[in-house]
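ok so i was messing around last nite and threw this chain in just to see what happens. nothing serious, just curious
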Amino acid sequence: MRKSIQKSMAVLGAAVLAFSMAGCSTGTAETTAQTETEASEAEETSAAASEEAETEAAEAAGDLSGSITMAGSTSMEKFANALAEVFMEKYPNVTVQAEFTGSSAGIEAVLAGQCDIGNSSRSLKDEEKEKGAVENIVAIDGIAVVTDPANEASDLTKQQLTDIYTGTVTNWSEVGGADMPIVVVGREAGSGTRGAFEEILGIEDACKYANELDSTGAVMAKVASTPGAIGYISLDVVDDTVKVLTLEGVEANEENIKAGDYFLSRPFVMATNGEISEQSELVQALFDFVYSEEGDELVKSVGLITTK
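result:
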């Protein structure tokens, strides 16, 4: 009798255990199925949101059409061309055209209604602002002082640089170089680079140039091929055809410019005739792009410094 009861209890226990395990298995399966369903729904929601965003972007791109014209600084050529290329890729129905006529000419053109944006590699003058020009700073550029690669000088003080450009110092031996005449090269009147360079040194209309050239590239080529030459160019176009001097012992680079340790730096300005909010939808869209994270990446990609 006892054995029969024990046997019955064992069978009952086994049945309870089996039922319990079946219940657990069912619960686990249900939980797994629920989790998979929720994950699938989340993926579908995310995909839908992404598709909606892409659709909105495509619609926005489709809505924008027309042309934007820029004119001005030759120092901003690399930036302006890159901006035009990327913006037209983003908005296929938009055409961006840029001419490089010098900063002053660009500002005059935008004020005269001959272009949408006047590119200037210097701050706007008070008289330009009084006429309605608005200074929209889009990047910061350093001005590099360069010589021919064989020049033995390596560093100049601000006073030495001033003396060279005003004709007080005429031989490299006076500033740590070899006994060789200094050939002073610069930009033409109206150039933003020249305006910024002379203004920073306080030598407006006092420079003694041997050559006044009409573009950044021309200055670099002249200096590279002329023994004893010195010139100033936008930092972002420097290459190994020239030697870059340090100034007051400070190297021309982004870190030093942002820290305020390198004194030769200037703004890159996209001037408008009136505030940005008063411009066409196209021009406003261009500035929205310039001041976005994508715009910051573009600024960095061409060797300039962001305003943020």
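not much to say yet. The radius of gyration is 33 Å.
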